[in-house]
Amino acid sequence: MTSSASALLDVLAAEGGGGDTGFQAPTVEEFYPEPLAAFSLLGVDFEITRITLIMWLATALMIGLMVAAVRKPSIVPGKLQFLGESGYSLVRDGIARDVIGPKGLPFAPFLASLFFFILANNAMSIVPLAQISPMSKFAFPLVLAVITWVVYNWVGIREQGAGRYFKDAAVPPGVPIGALILVTPIELLQVFVIRPFTLAVRLFANMFAGHMLLAVFALGTVYLLQVGNFSIIFSPFAFLMALIMTFFELLVIVLQAYVFTVLTATYLNGAVEPAH
Hints:
The chain has one domain. Helices cover 68% and strands 4% of the residues. It contains eight helices and two strands. It has helices at 3-14, 50-70, 79-100, 108-123, 139-160, 162-170, 180-226, 235-272, and strands spanning 37-41, 44-48. It has a two-stranded antiparallel ribbon with strand order 1-2. Helix 5 crosses helix 6 and helix 5 (139-160) packs parallel to helix 8 (235-272). The N and C termini lie far apart (57 Å). Residues 1-5 and 11-20 have low confidence and may be disordered.
């Protein structure tokens, strides 16, 4: 039974098991659990919550899988080695090489790290007992977006020089001089503010919405079973919807990791190759 379902049962028990107050829908409080530990370091307060532990677990499992896949490499790969090599090849050939071009291969490890880190953490949203992705808290996607922002701007300055990089960002080729008054602020805002913001929001919003949908149907199933009277006949439908949404969430888990990585590669491509 999930922590959300347990919470609902506690509410029902406190109310005598009755359904007078109706269905207790999940709220954003689920994304702000009570801290399991708190400490200060260099004057900064830190808290370790259930979501923090889920992120650590997902990251450790992802690293462990990758290390195990390459621990004893062979010419004829085993199942685990084949899985690891296939995943890395997907990012190296399907994203780094296809999106950035020949210059994209040095970025393959970075892009693969992004992809598998996001994928592992997203997958926790359908893992029993965890059932929430750290990416459904805005702070985590925002940190990844800031890292991406730093990397593609640093690469752009390194490859093109600061002057040309900022000039190309502010003055797109082929734009009439008279239109630059309007275009230049928009382009600067788009490159240096909107890109990282939309990267973070897209990942966060999808995982947040997915968790809420799963929680609604899971809690709905428990509620219909506990409330009594004829409501129990509707519980199989709520449970079926929870299963359907779980499979849909599985698609979103992979898609959002892929989209974040592809967009990062697109921004790196613009940094490596100056606009024409």
